[in-house]
Structures are given as C-alpha cells and as structure tokens.
Queue: 3 jobs
Job 1
Amino acid sequence: MKCRICESETTLLFRETVLNKYKVGYYECPTCDFVQTETPYWLDEAYSQAFTSTDTGTLQRSLILGKSTIALAFFAFDRHARFIDYAGGYGTLTRYMRDVGFDFYSTDLYATNFMARGFDAKPGNYELATAFECFEHFVYPGKELEKILAYSDSIFFTTQPCPKPAPAIKNWWYYAPHHGQHIALYRPKTLAYLGGQYGLHYYNLLNYHLFSKRKLSPFVFKFLVIAGRLGLSNVVSLFLKSRTLSDADLLQKQPPLPVHVS
C-alpha cells in the first residue's frame, strides 16, 4: 500500500472494523509519518448524512475555533479583506465571524449553508481560508489541498495529530471507526511534508495548524491562537463593526433566497 501523500511504501498497523461491518487496514508511512486507511470504498455509506449523530460538538467547535480565528485574522492578516470557511457545514462559523465584523463566506459540497444564507463563497481570491476538522476526511490530501489553495494561499485548520507510536484503535477516539469518515491521520512531520510540496510554511500548536505562503513568527501564531481563546477575541470585536444588521439590510434588497426543504 503506497502513501497517499509521498507515495512511499507503507506498513500495516492493524485491521479493525469500520461502520460495524467492514474489516479495514490502517497503514503508516515511514517517510512522512502519515497514517491512512486502505483505499476507502465505504464513503458513500459513511456520508449518507453530512454530519454524524455523534458529532455533538459542531456548534461549540465553531464558537471556540472562531475565537482563535478572530485574533489571527485581525493581527496576522488583512482584517478588511474577504475570508472563506472551506467545508463550512451549515455556515455556523461564517455567521459568527460576520456577526463579529469580518467579511466571511462559506462553501461546502456536502452540507447546506443554513446559518449564513446569502454568503456562499464564489470562486476568487480570499485573504485566509479556515478548514476546521476536514483534513482527516481527505482521501488524497494533496488534491484536496489544491482545491483550498485555489481560494487562498493561507489556510488555518484543525485536525488531531496522531500520537506516535500509533495507539490501538480502542485507545484513541479520533480514529472514529463507527462513522468511517476519518481516513487520514497526520502528525506535524506529515503536515510539514505536505505543505512543503506546495511551497507553504507550516505552523503548529497542538491540533491547530496554519499553512501559508507568508512567513510568520511561530511564536506569534501560537500566541494569537491561545490569546484568542482566552479573551483577546472579545477585545478585538470592540474595534470591528458587526455585519448582523447590515447583512439583513443587504439581503432584503436582493431576490428572496430559495427555501431549503430537508
């Protein structure tokens, strides 16, 4: 089995049951440290719903990660530019960031943008892309990274780094074999290798990651991620004008948006 990032030969870690029915091999790359499942043939079944019933942290995640995004976007990027939330789900983060004052847009191939209707991302250049909890879903990370880079050459994202040595499947919740969607697991070495293939600088703090063509101070990245969560985001919001009311006025002047029926 070849690594889907660097094409090195991988070694089998173990075989475990995915979706309570499929015996699946998990493989590790000795070159870039990537951990991957065998080629996933079960994804149509795994994605019969955009969100799994056990993903109870969707709203909390947007609020928590949004705080770090506020600090990073305000101090390390052009706060007046356009931003995009890639794989933005129901648009929760985009609505939150617009309520704070950032010009955010959402895109997702598998979920309907309910919360930030009218602010779906169009092709173009964006100052920064966020991509929270989606890298672990990529069958071919390089190809998916190229799709995000088509929007922005700076990507702020989260994914849980795989411990080393790789734990047994019962000892690490992030494998999540019950829903079968986590098929790509990374370590900092993996992401540095992946970013390097595209000329990107890589910055890391625990499960927070940043790819960027720009050179930033690793200390500044870590400080803004932490400080945003600890309250700097609240201070920043005092210097921005919320788009909540202006968005409502803008949408009233446009043709009615279609009603989504589930």
Job 2
Amino acid sequence: MKQTLLLITMMLSLSGCALNSIFINYPSQIAPVKAQLNSATPQQAAAIVESNISGADGLLYAQEAGRAAQIAGDFEASKRYFEQASRAYGVFDDKAKLSVSDAGATATSLLLNDNVIPYRGPGYERIMLHQYQALNYLFSGDIEGALVEVRRSNELQSSEQARYRKSSESVQAMDNGTIDAEMNKLGQAAGTTTSSFLNAYSYYTTGVLHEILGEPNDAYIDYRKAAQISPNNPYLQQDLVRLAGQLSMPQYDEFKQRWGDTKRQQQGEGQVIVMLERGFVPEKQSITVPFTINGNWQTASLASYTPTLTQLQPANIKGFGTNLTTAPIANIDALAITALKEDLPAALVRQAARIYAKSELTQSVESNSKRLKNQTDYAAIAMQLFNVVTEQADRRSWLTLPKQAHIARTYVKAGSYSIGLNDAAPNKIEVKNGRTTLIWVIDTGNYTRFYSIII
C-alpha cells in the first residue's frame, strides 16, 4: 500500500505546474475571465490568468491574457502577452530540443491524462494569434510591425496545411462504437468547414491590412483565398471586382459579370471597413467510455463538442444614414470543432497507450499486494480509484476567441458619425475624405466595444 501511494505521489509531482489542468477542467478556470470581459470592467480580466503564464500551459494562458487585454482596448499589453505566446510556439517548433520536463510530462500522461502534456495550440489558434497581433500593431500605430505579423499569418496558413497533409492518416486505436459516433457528431457539428487551418476571417484581415497599407497585389491574393472558403460573402465578391479592375487583372470581366460592378468612391467620401466579432467559442465537453481489462474497471475520457453550431445571422450597423448590414465570413466555433476532429486519431493513440499502462500498473500492484495479507483489496481499490479520478479529458483550448466573425464595407461622406450595433449604445467615429476608417467591433454579449483607426 505504501508503494502504491508513493508511486501516485511521484506521478503527481512530475506533472509540476500543470496540476490545475489535471484536476480542474480548463473551462472552469477561464469562466471568471470571460465573465469579466462581459462586464463594465474588462481591464481586470487579463490579471486573472497572468500568473499562470510561467507554468506548463503558459502558451495558452498567454493567449488568453493577450486576447483579454485586446478586448479591453489595451493593445500594448496584448502585444506583450502575444509575444510570450509566440516565443512559446517557437520552443515547440525546435524539434531538436526535448527538455527533461517535457519528456517527464509525456511519460506521466500515460498514467494521468493528456492535461499534463504542455499545451501546443492547434493551427487555427496560432494563425489567429498573428492575425490579432497584426491588429495590435496597427492600432498601436506601428505599420511595419503589422505587416510583419500579416506575413507570418499567411506563412502559417500554408505551413499548417502542409503539416496536416502529412499527419492526416486515420488511426484505428479503439474498437468502440462510441468513438465512431463522436467522429460523426463532430463532422455534423462542423457543418461545411473541412479544415481548421483555412480561415476566411484571417485571410480577409490580412487582405485588408495589405490593401490599406499599400500592397494591393497581396490583398487581392488573400481576398481570393478568403472567397474560396466563404464564396457567398458579397463584400468579398465586391473586393475582388474592385481590385481586379484596379490591377487590370484578366479576371475582371468575369468577376464583374458574376457579381456586378463595384461602387466607386466619390469625391468627399471616405471608406469604412467594419470587422465584427461576436460571442465566445464553445467549450469542450467530456465523454467517458467505461470498460474492463482483466476484470478491472478502466475509463477512457475524451474531449468533444455539443453539436450546437449557430447559424451566422447578419447584424445592422446604424448611424451612417442607412443601415450597413454585415455579412458573415467565418464560424470560429466550426474551426475549433474541426481542429478537435483532426486531432482525434492522435488522441486515441495516446488513450490506448494510457489504458494499457494503467492496466499493467494495476495488475502489478495487485500482484505485489497478494504477497502481503490484508492489503490486497486496499491496494487494488486505491489504484482503481486513482485511475478513475485521473482520467480526465483534455478540455483545453483558447476560449476568449470569438464565436463568429462578420464584415462590411462602404463609402460615406467625410464627417463625424455616431454608430451602433443593432440596439447597442452608439459610438463616435470619424471618416476623412479619401482615407479608410477601420472599425473593429467586439460583441461579448452584454457589452459591445468599438475600436477605430483612420489610415
């Protein structure tokens, strides 16, 4: 019995700073952050997770803190947090360096759960990190910094696609109908989204930044990629018509015939571009599959999503004389669901190895205990309880990301406007002749925040 307790203690000590995620599910840890962001004092949200950035899941907490600061309008603080997350990704990229702590965490995961493995976000999170960092630089007045992050985002879209192709072979790790049902459910929940790393919103954001910062050719390329993912967005269609004409592209006549000619900017007008983000991405749920090995109960816990994909509904921006209706461009929750589906084969391999390791350990404890009278049952019970308690699904993901993204674009007379989203309180913005006003609207549910910049 003492050996069993000692072994359990050693395994827990190996998990180090990841202990929170092992026994306290991640959504519960981030709930106070989201609540603060949906209040009148969002400035306090980042501080809730700041102390965790030095831990094993520091990359994830840095992403949360960066996004929290960004929603609150503190772009400089957000930039610093995102820089920490970017450096953490760089450590993961250095395949030649495997630290002792990482090796210990991977080994411990065979006997505890995937939460002890240091968090490395899926591709779509990393892409959005650079997308948001580009906006941080832009709203902080650093155009060159914004362009650097735009190019990093574009490069990642390509590299993540290549990485996925190499690792997309299916793995049959468990013979259990529950697993097949979950795969089907995730596929239905993701709707028409087939790849987590192909994000029309990210392509559109980088396209907008390329265009307003004087790189129309690169903007045209990004708009075309966005339109391939979100082909029915009317603003993307008009962007392609406009830039194809401006750049004398051979596709101009075809685009104009398909989507009509674009409105021209008139003298005394400025351009308005709206990027609207709404809600928060959904939280992962846990499913548990119980079974026995050699007469001992084991459980397999996997992360999943409840199939509640929300249809993207247009929103009205009021205050420009006539309503400006947004058009949906991305379901970020569909990207999260698809990313989980893409990772499920690897998760199943780890799960199969963990179940086998736990079964072997249980049998070893029972075998050793049988040599000692009156201790067999206690050791076996302790080991089985340990197995059940520590088998927790990995529910970690970047939870302060938006659920949906919309866009809109128009030309209006230069001047001051008081605009609002649907029935939200109005905000003042300026439009200047011949210039572009970029309006970033973040709707967290109870509060809607407007950030604008003239370029």
Job 3
Amino acid sequence: MLDVDGRAGGGQQVRTALSLAAVEGRSIRVENVRAERPDPGLKAQHVAAIEAVAAATEATVEGAEAGGDAFTFEPTAPPGGEFAVDVGTAGSATLVCDALLPLAVVLEEPLTVRVRGGTDVKWSPPADYLLHAKLPFLRGLDVDADVSVERRGFYPAGGGTLSLTVRPSTVAGLRLRERGPVRGLSARAVAAESLESASVAERMADAVADRTAVPTETTATYAETASPGAVLTLVADCGDARAGFGVLGERGVPSESVAEEAVEAFRGWRATGAPVDEHLGDQLLPWVALAGGAVRLPRVTDHVRTNAAVIRAFGYELEIAEGNEGAVASAPLRE
C-alpha cells in the first residue's frame, strides 16, 4: 500500500491520489489530510470524490468521513459504471468530476456519474469553467468526456446537479510551451431567477465587454436555484490553449465590480504568456504524468508543488522547471 502525506496541500492532493490509484489499480493510504490548513481534514466534497472514485472501481474504503485526517482506498475492479454521488452540502460538484476525468485512460466502458452539490461555489472552478475551458482543452488531447448542468447550485443550499460521462480514451501528449494570440473572449453570466429584476446577469456580461478590447461574446441567463447567487466565467480562446476565470457575485458587491475582477484576472494571465491559466495548470499535472509531454505554467504555486509531490510518490517522472518566463511541467511521452 502506498502512503501519501497530505499535510502540506489541499483537496487537490486527495483528488490526484485517488485518480492515480484508480488508474493503476493501486491501494493507497492518505494521511495528515490538509493538516496545515486552518480547517484541516476531509470536507464533504473530498469525501464525495472518494465515494465517486470508489464506486467506479468497487474500492474498499476506510476512514473517509468529514473531519477525518486519514483514509485508505483499495480499488478492486477496472473503472466504469453508472451511479450518483451527493456531496450533501454546497461543496464543489465540479471538483468531484475533476477526480473522475483521468480514469478515461484506463476505462473499458463509459463511466456516467450524476453529482449533486454546489456547481458554482468558492474555492472551486465554476460549472462553466469545466464546460467551456477545461473540457474543450482535454478534448484537444483526445479525452472523450462530456458534462451537462442539470441544475445550478450556489452556497449555502447547494442542490445543483452535474452529469458527467467519461469514455475510454487514448490521450495525446501535451505540447504547450508557447501560446498563440487570444482569438476571442467569452463571458458567461448566470444568476438566480430571484436576481433577474435587478438585471444582474446582463450587467456582469455587459461590463466585461466594456472593459476589454478583445472581441467578446456575452451570454446572460437565469436559473432556478435553491439559494440566490450569481457567477461570471470568462474563457479566453487561444486555439490549442485555453484559460478560464470565474468570479462569484456576492451580496453588496455591484455586478460591475464582479466583471472588473474577472477582467483583471484575464489581463494578469495574458501578461504571463502562458498557454493555460494558473488553476488549469495545476489540474493538468496528472495528465502530464499520464500522457507525457510538456505545458508551460504561469507560475509555480504551492498547489503545483504539493500536487507534483503526490504524482512523484506514484513513481512518475514529473519535472517542474522554473525560469524567468514562468515554469514548464514535463514528463516523458508515453508509448
């Protein structure tokens, strides 16, 4: 059984360890989960990710409960099947999907999962980031996966639902050391129906177009939700490369300020010259290890360092080379 120390990182270490254990059919014990965080231990969304990957691999699991600091995971079957997972809170449904996507490289049959929880919540990628930034990027690597948003879920009630289907895939190596010009920008604003009278979604979307010279396609929609909320997601299209930036609306914060924050995040990324945004760069590390190749990152964050440590614990030759122009994550190409 492989021991993984999760003290220095967050939930990404848990998700990466689960994904690689499922891909390799390897038993793991993750200890000191998020021990150095102000709120250590497993959260509901981490437990849901464990339950999801366990269901896909018929794994035996011990210790996976909210607040727990360690768990064991022992897969017994090749990944696949159809099932549902409920986070039980407004915890991130998109990050549960994140743990399941790498299983594409070993699937023998499609995997379909309905995840109930928060679709657009803090500290996680919004649903439109997954739909329009990450998944299109992965499809460029020949990953065959789709997700649909059946219902939006904001904090604190959650109650949103995503439906994810992942199919057997032979993944191409990454070759993204440079980025082409930004071809266009999409701004997708979604708000609860209770906010329609204040035109919250239209104001967020229109404010983006007013603040950037890049050609921008805007959409503004409203959804029936259990809790009021709003989210704005920008996606930059650079051909083979993509970057996304999600900002949640908050009570008392003008829609225009939400748009300004998202545009500033886009501008900051654009200045780096990196082909992917900071969060996608972190999430791509398992794919670099599994398929090989290289991708340039905007910078090396603590998330990158701790995620890379988990990947190396599985024996993958993942290198993070830092320089004046950012950093490059690379691994030998797979045959």
